[in-house]
Design a protein that fits this description.
Number of strands: 10
Strand order of the largest sheet: 1-2-3-5-4
Number of domains: 2
CATH topology of the largest domain: Aminoglycoside 3'-phosphotransferase, Chain: A, domain 2
CATH class of the largest domain: Alpha Beta
CATH superfamily of the largest domain: Aminoglycoside phosphotransferase (APH), C-terminal lobe
Strand content: 5-15%
Helix content: 40-55%
Distance between the termini: 46 Å
Shape: globular
Length: 396
């Protein structure tokens, strides 16, 4: 990663001179000088951890240089959460380390930089230690961690390709079963490429999915009252039953899932707002936002995606077909040691983990009305998917 003396903290600090300096050695920008920049914020109400801007560029001599690019910087309101999760650093490291190798389409990264931090490079050891503390101490770790994170002044920035002609998915509107099938078959290629890969363990930033399981469970317990206040109608429609089941069963759910299912590279925030459809390339799917990427269970990505994207009215038979199609894509990619029955079991367990994760949304600033609307639609779709889960046998 290139080291620079200055990393912009706000979009107004991303000046023509700064952009010219960091891009001039990139093939797409070689020999160009950017003389003017106009900005447009993208995805308001969609990205919870970062602010995203499209920059339209004016060159002194443009040649074939891109007319625009995208810049990502931390969202001020949720920056402590992003810092605590290591999200900003993780996405930069993903692009630098794995971005050229993933077998699906992602934006090209032109430049990424962040302030180094000794603590973050020991985050696996720190989290593993914290997660083993007695429960009465674990409850306070998150509070202390957030306090520390809120006082850090690290800077982060990503400058990436603008796939301007592509159509963005819409988490509020949801997607058809056919669109969900296309996305899951695309994701299956990445899961298959890193299936049980020994190479995933050598990166400080690529955390195991279960490394902070106990702390996440304590956060769930702490957040339940706020969650109930936010979504009383959906809880009354049947979601309450599954929230109640998570106490006490949620304490061991992550461990059970990750100990019995194969490990791979997972996106961890696979939702429609993080997906582009490039109609110029036969609706080629582009995956965005790798801030939460981890090594973990493929079924979690599938459950996370379907719980938020597939419209609630779709029947269980449609879900069964989508799961079978995803599993077939894994098999076609050479994964033959993961029976469909095991995958379905892991998918049902993962749905409950998605609920446990989303119950903690009071830890985030949801932004404008779209953020709340997004979560309401997600909860309704998640409830529809959870109705297929047999709580009596899901842990067997």
């Amino acid at each position: 990663m290139a080291e620079r003396e200055f990393i912009p903290e706000s979009i107004d600090e991303v000046t023509p001179a700064w952009l010219t300096g960091v891009l001039q050695d990139k093939p797409d920008f070689a020999g160009t000088e950017i003389v003017e920049v106009s900005q447009q914020q993208l995805g308001e109400g969609e990205g919870f951890l970062g602010d995203i801007f499209r920059l339209n560029l004016t060159y002194r001599d443009p040649g074939s240089a891109p007319a625009s690019l995208v810049v990502k910087i931390p969202k001020k309101e949720n920056r402590p959460v992003g810092e605590l999760l290591g999200a900003y650093e993780r996405e930069s490291m993903f692009f630098e380390t794995l971005g050229a190798d993933v077998p699906i389409r992602i934006p090209q990264c032109y430049f990424g930089a962040f302030d180094r931090d000794r603590g973050s490079e020991k985050q696996q050891e720190i989290l593993a230690f914290a997660d083993k503390l007695p429960t009465f101490l674990t409850k306070s770790v998150g509070t202390v961690g957030m306090w520390i994170a809120s006082r850090k002044r690290r800077r982060y920035i990503l400058v990436i390709e603008d796939i301007a002609q592509a159509r963005s998915g819409d988490q509020v509107s949801g997607a058809s079963a056919e669109a969900c099938r296309t996305i899951l078959q695309t994701v299956a290629r990445t899961h298959a490429a890193y299936w049980q890969s020994q190479n995933l363990g050598g990166h400080f930033w690529l955390l195991p999915q279960n490394i902070d399981a106990r702390m996440r469970y304590q956060t769930f317990l702490k957040s339940r009252p706020a969650f109930r206040a936010l979504f009383p109608e959906i809880l009354g429609a049947g979601l309450e039953r599954y929230v109640d089941w998570l106490d006490p069963n949620g304490a061991n759910l992550m461990t059970l899932l990750t100990e019995t299912a194969p490990e791979t590279l997972i996106h961890c925030d696979l939702r429609l707002d993080n997906i582009l459809f490039d109609e110029a390339r036969a609706n080629d799917v582009v995956l965005l936002d790798w801030q939460l990427v981890r090594r973990g269970v493929a079924a979690y990505d599938v459950a996370y995606f379907l719980s938020g994207a597939l419209r609630a009215a779709e029947k269980g038979s449609v879900v069964d077909d989508l799961l079978a199609d995803y599993h077939r894509a894994l098999c076609d990619a050479g994964i033959t040691d993961y029976p469909l029955a095991d995958f379905r079991r892991d998918y049902h367990r993962a749905l409950l983990l998605v609920l446990q994760t989303l119950t903690s949304i009071d830890q985030m600033e949801m932004g404008d009305d779209r953020g709340i609307e997004l979560m309401i639609s997600w909860m309704r779709r998640l409830l529809a998917r959870l109705r297929d889960v047999n709580l009596e046998t899901v842990l067997d």
